[in-house]
Structure prediction request, 192 residues.
Amino acid sequence: MICVRRARPDDAPGIAAVHVAAWRSAYAGILDEAYLAKLSETRLAAFYTRAILDRRDGHAVFVATAGGQDQPGDAPGPEAAIVGFASGGRARRRGLAEGEVETLYVLDDFRERAIGRRLMRAMAAHLRVIGCGSALVWVLAENPARYFYAHLGGKEAMTDMVTVAGRPVKQTAFTWPSIEALLSATAQVKES
Ligand SMILES: CC(C)(COP(=O)(O)OP(=O)(O)OC[C@H]1O[C@@H](n2cnc3c(N)ncnc32)[C@H](O)[C@@H]1OP(=O)(O)O)[C@@H](O)C(=O)NCCC(=O)NCCS
Prediction:
């Protein structure tokens, strides 16, 4: 069974492993290959430990876990493993929306199983709890994930340039002027 819950500090290594796998897959051809090759699970685990503990600006991290029976392969273990995560809080940049989904990553083998939708819903519910009436997410313009956000009703609000790994890349902000609209768009959960 897939579960979505608030992250605990001991989830940090699992989140870091998903970060590295998802970045190498999603950003191949978009970000610098040497940078992607050098991503360090150890350093990212330390980063996510701090992110989970630091609740300033309403920041929160959610994880999706899959039990052994959900894992691909012939001999899955019994342990639930982290297969996706999302994080965010009050928007880092004022003006576009009150709340921001800063990260959202699902392992390739677990895509199209409503995990991204459930993580977005967890974030939307959290943003509403901390008093945000609207939400935004930044996505690299070349990333097909932009169509996922459009599918959930996000509207393109602006584009700008951001430097990632020393390379300028275009990014697009998708916004939901009403947090209720994002909650509605993520309400139907179909799990397979
Ligand atoms: C984007 C991402 C999080 C989506 O997660 P997911 O678990 O595969 O998505 P879901 O299964 O919850 O999909 C929900 C709906 O969106 C649709 N969808 C998913 N990815 C889509 C895409 N790239 N384009 C268009 N629609 C998409 C699904 O078909 C589904 O539609 P339905 O409910 O009408 O059947 C996942 O593909 C991912 O991790 N991508 C790589 C990392 C990344 O780019 N993250 C975003 C960084 S800003």
